[in-house]
Every structure is written in C-alpha cells, then in structure tokens.
Amino acid sequence: MIGGSSSNNYMMYVRGNPEDYNSWADAGFEGWDWDTVLPYFKKSENLQVSDVMQNKTLADYHNTRGPMKVSRPEHERTQETKLEALLQSLSEIGIETIEDYNGPEQLGASKNYFTISNDRVPIRYGTAQAYIVPAKKRKNLVILKNALATKILIDSTKTAIGVEVEVNGKRNRFYASKEVIASAGAVDTPKLLVASGVGAAADLAALGIDVVSDLPVGKDLQDHLFLPVVLSGATDIGTALPVVDLRTIGFPTLNGFFALNGTGRPDLQIIPFYLDMASPFFAFACTNNFNFNNDICSSLINSNKKSELFAILLVLLHPKSRGEIKIRSLNSAPEIYTGYFSNADDFDTVTAGIRRILNLTETDYFKSFDSEVVRVNLPACDELEYMSDEYWECYALQMGRTLYHPAGTCAMGRVVDPELKVLGVDRLRVVDASVFPSMPSGNTNAPVIMVAERAADLIIQQYYGDQNIVTVP
C-alpha cells in the first residue's frame, strides 16, 4: 500500500447518514449500502463511552472490541454548563438534543465523538496507533520512513506490477506479488495515477505521458466547506484560565445536523466552539487554524474581549459545486481548485442555514444577554445591506473555509469500480476518500476507515475466498 495520512490529529468520529451509502448503492455501486457498510464501521470501533454502551438501542450500533479507540472528552464544569445551555438553545430552534448522532438518528445535536483514548490523560488515537503500531513487528510488513511514491509501474499488458519510490532521496523499485494499492488521499492519489499514465488523455498529453487508461482522474473534487456564525454571550464571566487545559479552550465538544425541510438526510452540520471571555487561544486559532486575515480576526478578538463567544461553524454537507485537482508538473505539488460556490444553489443552502442559526439570538439563554451576531470586518461586503441574502452570499465567499475533507477525485463509476479497482488497469486499486462517489453527511475520518476495512475484505475474498474474511461484529 502506498500513501499516507495525518493520523495523529484530533479527528471527529462521524459516520454520516444511511442515505449517503444507500445512494451509492442506488447508483449501481453494489456492496456499499448502509446495511453492508455499518458492520465495517463497527468492526474498527473501540467505543469508550459507557452510557452509550449501557443503552441497548444505541449499543447495537457500536463495538468495544475494534482497534480504533473512540471517546468523548470530559469538560471543565463551567464549559459543561455552557454546553448544556447551547443544547437547550438549539432545541428551541428545532435542532433537538439526541444522545448519539452515530446511532439510529442523526438529525439533532449531541456531545461529540473523537478518535481519542479515554485514558486518565486522553491522547490522540489515529489509524497509525490503531493499525500500524500493533502490526509493525509482523514479518510480512515493512514500513519505510522518508519515502515518497512517485509512480506506479504498469507493464505493456496494462497490469500494475509495482511502485517507484524515493527513499531518503534515492529512487527504488518495489514489485508486487498480487496487486498495488494506492492510498495517498484525494489530492495526491490523482498525481500518482497521472504520473503512471492513468488520467484524462488531454492532461497526460500536456505532461508528455503516454496514456495507459483514459479516465477523469482529479475531476469532480468535492469538499466540505464551513463558515462561522459568531454570537456574543455573557459579559460578566471573568477571563479564561491562564493554565492550558484542553477542557477549557475553544474545542468542538458538540456536533449537530439539520435538514432544511426538517426530515431526511441532513443538509448542514454545525460544529460549535465555546470561547470564554478574552480567550487567550482565540487569536492563535483565528489566524493559524482558520487562516482568517487580520481584519477578520481583530473584529472577532475585540468582541471576545467584551463577552464570551459562541462560534457556530456551519458546514455545507452536500455541495453541488465541484472543483478539480490539476497536475501541472510531476515536480511540483498538485494544484487544488476548490470550485466553492461555482453552483449558485449552494448559496441558497448556506443562506438558509445561517438564518436558522441566527434564531439562536431569540432563545432564552441568548436573549438573557442581549446576544448579537458579531459583525465581522469585511470591506468587500460593506456596500451591501447588512444581513440581507446578498450580504450573506458575500459573507460566504469571504468567510468560507475548507474543513479538509477533499474527496471524489478517483470516484467509483468514474475511475474505479465498486471493488475499488482502477478501470482499464489490472491489479491496481485505490483506497482513500478519492473513491467516494458523493460526500457523506459529516466528517470523513470514519468513512475512510470504513472504506479501508471493506477493501481489506474485498482483497481477502479475491485471493483467499470467503472463509478467510475476519468476522465483523
């Protein structure tokens, strides 16, 4: 397998909605319906939330024996009180409190899941810890550091026979006895395929690469973008604690989903951040985590000096807009063209979502502090009527940011088949978010792990038969 991941990040654990996967199956991708993929979500999971596992209805959706630790962080009591107030406020605007968004009902808001351990000192728990560390001493596994896959070796019969890899600056070739699996992600897998002659014929010709398989590699990029709606709160709560404590800083400890028509698959996700008054961490997060400019950050920081803030990140779950990964040169990084809001329907969805969130200022908690929407310094929008639809469209263009969920650039039906095999090339699969035919309703961490678990069984089936598939809980 070739590729990599930033598996040491704090990753939210969100499976999405059953209709996400049923739509894949309805499009002809057999074996990717909800009933089939749910066991693979469970297979990887080691849930460390006792109250969920003690609920028989919820426990049926989870597992405590998988390799991937999933937990919920504890909160300092002041923050816990604020979270409870926010949950109540959300319920007042029709986003009800639910126990488990990974259970039988996704619409609503609940405490967040993360791939972190629930040890005395919580630690990040990513795919490296869950899968690679326990297996690193196996005789049939070799892990190379400082290695970059640059090309898949494909012979004259259009069969993948190995990979070309730079290790510590030296070029090496490794040959496959069965097949090659590309897992470099939705941005770098397209570059790897194009370098190997798999891509759109025009793109390959521009690079002087012979065509092995003419496929729309890198096209139809999808991503979850978010934009923050920031509300003021209490003004008499002191300042944030000077001691660094992850339980007290702005941290997405709640997660919510809502559909604009009130039912079905969610259109939008909300990830609230609570920021204590004069939070010392806000300035860093604003410029470094969210990459906002000084004008934007200054207006938000000045508001935070006067009151606590609730920053509600509004996520567009199913964008109609599409982007592209372009490979201009094999000696440079892929170019990412997000295509955000290239389809105007996405403006309508986010504007409707913003107006739902604005209703929070009329709920009991926020009214008690005369809560207001924090007006961000956006010179590009100054000439527009504040809070008009046109203003919010301008706001979305200025404030929209990636949630780092690129997907779909080597999608099923366009580049790979339902077994994730590259069309027109033998013994080559892709296993990462690039194979998603459409976006799941939530963060992509858990769905990618599910795809990998299912791919493992597809490979076992092909080479060893059904009897060797690991039992899924």
Summarize it.
Belongs to the GMC oxidoreductase family. By secondary structure, this protein is α/β, with parallel strands linked by helices.
List the main descriptive attributes of the protein structure presented here.
473 residues; alpha/beta; FAD/NAD(P)-binding domain; Cholesterol Oxidase, domain 2; 2 domains; 6-stranded antiparallel sheet; 14 helices; 18 strands; 17% strand; globular
- How much of the polypeptide forms β-strand, as a percent range? 15-25%
**Tally of structural domains:** 2
CATH topology of the largest domain: FAD/NAD(P)-binding domain
Query: Which radius of gyration do the C-alpha atoms yield?
Result: 23 Å
Per the principal axes of the C-alpha atoms, what is the gross shape? globular
Structural class: alpha/beta
Q: State the CATH architecture of the largest domain.
A: 3-Layer(bba) Sandwich
Summed over residues and divided by their number, the pLDDT gives a mean of 91
Q: How many beta-strand elements? A: 18
Q: Strands of the biggest beta sheet: in what spatial order?
A: 4-12-13-14-11-17
The description of the largest β-sheet is:
6 strands, antiparallel
Percentage of helical residues? 25-40%
Domain Glucose-methanol-choline oxidoreductase N-terminal: 185-199
Family: Belongs to the GMC oxidoreductase family.
Protein name: Glucose-methanol-choline oxidoreductase N-terminal domain-containing protein
InterPro entries: FAD/NAD-bd_sf, Glucose_Oxidase_domain_2, GMC_OxRdtase, GMC_OxRdtase_N, GMC_OxRtase_C
Q: What's the SSE blueprint?
A:
Layout lengths: L1 E2 L14 H9 L7 H11 E3 L2 H4 L2 H4 L8 E3 L6 H16 L15 E4 L15 H9 L11 E8 L5 E8 L2 E6 L4 E4 L1 H11 L2 E2 L1 H7 L5 E2 L10 E8 L21 E5 L9 E8 L6 H8 L4 H13 L2 E8 L7 E3 L8 E3 L7 H14 L5 H4 L21 H11 L1 E2 L25 E3 L14 H20 L9
Parallel strand pairs: 1-8, 2-3, 8-18, 9-10
Antiparallel strand pairs: 4-12, 5-6, 6-7, 11-14, 11-17, 12-13, 13-14, 15-16
Helix pairs in contact: 2-14, 9-10, 11-13
